[in-house]
Amino acid sequence: xxxxxxxxxxxxxxxxxxxxxxxxxxxxxxxxxxxxxxxxxxxxxxxxxxxxxxxxxxxxxxxxxxxxxxxxxxxxxxxxxxxxxxxxxxx
Length: 91
Hints:
single chain; 91 residues; mainly beta; Jelly Rolls; three-stranded antiparallel beta sheet; elongated
């Protein structure tokens, strides 16, 4: 039996200008296939140069959309990039 999640890991990265950590709190929310509301996917307290985050254990479903919310910080981040990684399909 295979329980496939389309997205399991999110990697966030920022450009650290002048070695300043700008983002101090963030959340990632997702919309699953067939869903109409955003639900929590993962969250953290800082991004730094790069942060790899795993989906919360309560998460289930196939992701069709992701959004990043910067909820606290020293300044607005210059840029934040996000990459997603999925589990390989079961054979």
